[in-house]
Each structure stands twice: as structure tokens, then as C-alpha cells.
Hints:
Blueprint: H1 3-9, E1 12-15, E2 27-34, E3 37-41, H2 42-48, H3 54-61, E4 66-67, H4 68-75, H5 82-92, E5 100-102, H6 104-113, H7 117-137, H8 147-184, H9 189-212
Parallel strand pairs: 1-2
Antiparallel strand pairs: 2-3, 3-5, 4-5
Helix pairs in contact: 2-3, 8-9
Amino acid sequence: MEIAKILNQMKVVVTTDLSKKSNGETKYLRTLKLKKKELFVAKDFAELLGYADTHQAIVDNCKKTTNLKLVLNQVYTTVLDKSTVKPYRKALGTKWATTQLIQEPDIWRLIIKSRLPEAEKIESWIMEEVLPSIRKNGFYISKEISDEQVSNLVEEANSIYEERRLFDLEHRRLKSVIYGELKKFGATEKQIGGMFSRMFQNLHIATVGKINKKRNILVLG
């Protein structure tokens, strides 16, 4: 079950407009995407999950809370200037710098501890289906996945394993052959180590990248 599905069930509007605030008709969850990292306004999620004291809920349950100023300092290598800060100050007011932000792991922590009916259903799903399956089988596959899809996933997993095994075997064989040839020419262990590092780095990246594209074995909904 993805965060997007959970929010859809709760009829929440996800927005990158930081000036939006939930009202009686519409519930907003403000997000921020910086350097491929998705961050959520912690207070929004705590409110959506029914916490009366949102500040305490964040303190008690979130382990990697950050704030907007810290995030911006990590993104921009230079000192933050007025033009960079202006849109955030306009949207969030004078407390823009201390606006607390969280990532997906802390969202799950807030969900599990929430007493909201929707959140309790998600907690039951995690505790009664996902975790027991991972403990027993080493993975969890959604009930929405068909038998044919499961079969395809297993086939892909076996293919990935075999590709990686063959790659490792060929890697070791090539290293042994090249090592012997370099030794004949009087290369030192340090020189050989440096050559191997450069020689096999690109090959490893290309091969592992190809394998990783096939990886979709753990399905959470």
C-alpha cells in the first residue's frame, strides 16, 4: 500500500503549494521536492491523522525530523539569500525556517500510532499481513497481484540471481588472468589494485544497473 493510496482513501489533496491550509471542506498535505527527495510538512500529516497535540506527536514518533532552513542549506552551497528564501517566507510566514519536515518512514510511524479509523486499518494490515509474511517468506506480495504476476516475479528473481552469479564468476576469472599477465611485466600489488579498481568499476556499474532495472520483487500494494 503506497502513501498515495492511503492519502486517496483519506480524501487528502497533496500539494506543492506551501501556502495551502486545510479547511472544513478540503484537507491538504503540503510537500516539498528537493534533489529528488520528497518531504512532507509534519504538522499537516499529524493533523490529518487526528493527533490533538501535533507537536508532541511529531516529537514522540518521528525520528528524522528536519526543518526547511536546514534542508535549503543542504541544497544550496552558498549562503541563503533573500531571493531564495522569499517564496518560502511568503507561503509560510515568519516561521518558515522552523517548519518541520519529514520523509516517508516517519509518516508510517505516525500512522501506526494514530487512533484514526483509517490509520488503524493500515496498522492492522502492516501488523497482521505484511510483517508476518516477511518473517515467514522473506517478502510480502499484495493480494491484488495475480498468480501469473507472482510467477513472473519469481522468474525475474531467478533470472537476476543467475545474471549476478555469472557476472561474479566472469569477474573473478578475468581478474585472475589479468593479474597473472601484469605480474609477468613486474607490476606491483599496489599498481595492480589501482588498475583493477578503474578497470572493473564501469563494468560493475553497467552490469548492476542492468540487473537493478529488473528488481521489483517486494510488492507492497
